[in-house]
Amino acid sequence: MTKQRAAPLSSGGVTSTGVTSTRVISTGTSPTGSSSTGREIARCPVPPPHRAAEARAAAADFAARLHPAPSARTVQNLLLLSSELVTNAIQHAGAVTALSFKADSRSLHVRVADPSPAHPQSRVPDMSGRTGGFGWPMVLRLAHRVTIRPLGREGKIILAVLPR
After folding, report:
1. CB burial class (10 A; 0-12, 13-18, 19+) of residue 16?
2. Which residue of 22, 40, 57, 70 is surrounded by the most CB atoms within 10 Å?
3. Would residue 116 be called left, alpha or beta, if left means φ above 0 and alpha means ψ between -120 and 50 degrees?
């Protein structure tokens, strides 16, 4: 398993090395992407979305069915994280091949699969808004843990975990 550190967001964007924060990204081959955060209490695979709005709607529906309900801030983070992961998959890999949500007693999990084997890369955000560069750093800041599971030529799965 390879570990890399994510760069923090600042007023000047992401550092050029991309290796300065405390949030750890794991790149491994865990078949389940499971965590030791607690007993699974809800799982929700959804049809692959074609737009970020569909991912947000699915995330909102999933969160609304959880008991106990997560805080409003956690739900906002889940919606934003889902939206960014799906937007990145559509923009950089051409599609989302799977989307699912899972909850346990301590965490919410978002899993997005796409057809590209290329791993996301942090880059200096374009402050003019033309070419982006904000999505992946945002994912790394919102998630407690991000794991990238390669699927060979079939693409990859990105699992992001939020504290509940």
Report:
1. exposed
2. 70
3. beta
Q: Could you tell me the two tokens for 117? A: 């084997």
Say what the pTM is. Answer: 0.74
Q: How far apart are CA 23 and CA 5, in angstroms?
A: 6
Rounded to an integer, what distance in angstroms lies between the CA atom of residue 10 and that of residue 56? 26
The residue type found at 92 is H
| pLDDT tens digit sequence for 10-56 | 222 222 222 222 233 333 333 344 444 467 678 888 999 999 999 99
DSSP letter string, 61-89? HHHHT-SSPPPHHHHHHHHHHHHHHHHHI
